[in-house]
Amino acid sequence: MRLNKEQKQKIMNQYGVDRIWSFSRVNVAHNCLQEYIHTYLRHDVPHTDNVYTVFGSEVHDITESLTTKEFDLNTASDAWKRFVKKWEEDPEALHFDTEKIKQGYLGNLTHYFANTELPEGAKIHTELPVMTKVGGTNSKPKYVFVGYIDTEYIDNDGNVVLVDYKSSSKSSFSKAKLPEKSMQLMLYATGIHQHDKVPFEKIKARFDMMKYVTVHYKQENGKWNTSIQERSIWVSKMQKKLETKLKKAGIDKEESRKLIQIASLANNMDNLPDSVKEQFYITNYYIELELTEEKCQKLLEDIEKRCDELMELESLSEEDQDSFAEVNHRYNPDDYYETHLCSYHTSELFKKKESLLKNVLKPEFSVEENNQDNEMHSLFNDDKEDTTLEELFS
């Protein structure tokens, strides 16, 4: 349930702040300062959808209906297939960047909605608003954030479980990138801790990586092990293990090859002997976050610093804002986010500006000047890595 204008105003009055912050606002500045300026300060570039936001919205709606039990797996799967069919038949629909990305995305999500696990617990909520105080004191915070948790429930062990659904690649949630990726969910967990006094050890925060499954398989020593695989090809990725197990089951090489081929094409093991099938099963792939008092306090300090920097930016004149952004976040035409997803750098406003600059650019513009400018690093992007197409959507 989204807070309305009156509810937000009540919070602002209670804590003496003039703004309710969202993490997405801070994150936009981290991704691109010019996008922040033109989206939040000047409001002169429109929000534009891309194929991933269009599909993401549908994924969100179906997942919410599953969580609230409005849908079961059959109706969720049917709803997803209807959406995909309608999209495929629309001549003006937005398209994926490559056929490979399209097939992987659609195949993995189709499997998810037919096979996902549903939350088991009590007091299940979707889009639950959560407030987090940043800086200052409990009664007089410096900044107040409000966000919405995809799914929140109490599990059978009494833990508060927060789930954030992700349809992007697991490579973008690598060990090196996870601290940045997990900031929003950790901020929500901190808000639950602040408001409900729940100890951090009783809060479980996780990403449901929708495109993947955890494959559980029995080893030859009788112990179980796991492997993370894309949903749409998980059976074919088990080929070597299946060959070994079918051989032990007394099935010859040629018959084994046929059985594995059928199983791989169907992406299930229904055609295999029970003695082999029972040695495999799949579950959702979750990335669990480690929540501690120390880590969450550090998070609040980092976010407070980012907000301080944004407030300083907002206090500048428009000319100085542009100069600051140009020095601290120079446009990178090789960055996928900026060239495809950034609302400013994909706007007509930016394209017109770039066209004018090309026309008036001095011939004597030197490579040395450009190199010197590039050596200046951003207050917001000291550790930012270029976003790649493969990491975002493969």
From TrEMBL:
Annotated region described as Disordered, given as residue ranges: 368-394
Keywords, ordered alphabetically: ATP-binding, Coiled coil, DNA damage, DNA repair, DNA-binding, Helicase, Hydrolase, Nucleotide-binding
Coiled-coil residue spans: 282-320
GO BP term, pick one: DNA repair
Entries under SUPFAM superfamilies matching the protein: Restriction endonuclease-like
Acidic residues bias spans: 383-394
Taxonomic source organism: Limosilactobacillus reuteri
Pfam families linked: PDDEXK_1 (PF12705)
Highest taxon above the source species: Bacteria
Residue span, PD-(D/E)XK endonuclease-like domain: 21-244
InterPro entries for this protein: PDDEXK-like_dom_sf, PDDEXK_AddAB-type, Restrct_endonuc-II-like
GO terms, molecular function: ATP binding; DNA binding; helicase activity; hydrolase activity
Protein name as it appears in the record: PD-(D/E)XK endonuclease-like domain-containing protein
